[in-house]
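2.7 Reproducibility. Because tokenized structures are sensitive to small changes in the input, we list the exact sequence used for Transcription factor A, mitochondrial, including any N-terminal residues retained from the expression construct. No trimming or masking was applied before prediction.
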Amino acid sequence: MAPLSLLSIGASLLGRTVGVCSSSSVLRCSCIAPALQRFSTTAGPPRRPLSAYLCYVIEQQPIVLKQNPDVKIVDITRKIAQQWKTLTPDQKRPFEEASLTDRERYRVDLQKYQSQLTPAQAAAIAEEKRRRMEKRNASRKKRELNSLGKPKRARSAFNVFMAEHFQEAKGSNVQAKLKSLMDDWKDLYVSQKQVYVQLAEDDKVRYKNEMKVWEEHMTELGREDLVRQKEKKATGTKGDKNNSTVKVLKDKVPTKEKVAKKTQPPAKKALEITEM
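Resulting structure tokens (single pass, no recycling of outputs):
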């Protein structure tokens, strides 16, 4: 189901799409053309193209709202989504054609927009896109790890203190409460902090044990990519470490030539030097 926040964005995109729709899509989408004329383009980057589903939502929303004036917008969107699922391929085709046309419009507008950018602006946009992608990937990986049951990280002494006293902390919002807790933590004596330090140490033991079991389970599932690198080295290079130790010990074993050289009498060495 499409997010509600996309509806207003989609309406602007569809306004530029309806004028170039095919003959079959114009007939189906003509009912929303007047409502789209009030949207105008901006000097910024082009808006992303509408999907076929969003085209259908924009057409059906005023109709369903008129038929159900007392229904919440969330329920309206849910009803439209159910209607979309029941449409036949022929009924969906006009909206799919409108979406394809809007995609072509977006491609042309994007090329035009990018050609007007300075190198510095293009680099800044690329960097921002990279940061958004990293954030999205990190969020996706976090959800995956949570679904796989990865243990929660060990808490610090302050985190233990904060969790215990957060409800009673001063402040009307989260930031104010955190600031108040940080001030209270700084005012504690070392002996008072020691209780939370010990709890944090116990939590480290808990985390270490749970992570060991979890990583063994991930290895059994074939997800070695989720195992920490240091754990891989500790298990994967154990044999190499033993071999290197044997090699070092072997090098320390004196050979026959070394023994003979060390046990050679000093007089014989002096004689050899004189003869040379």
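The two ends are 97 Å apart (CA to CA).
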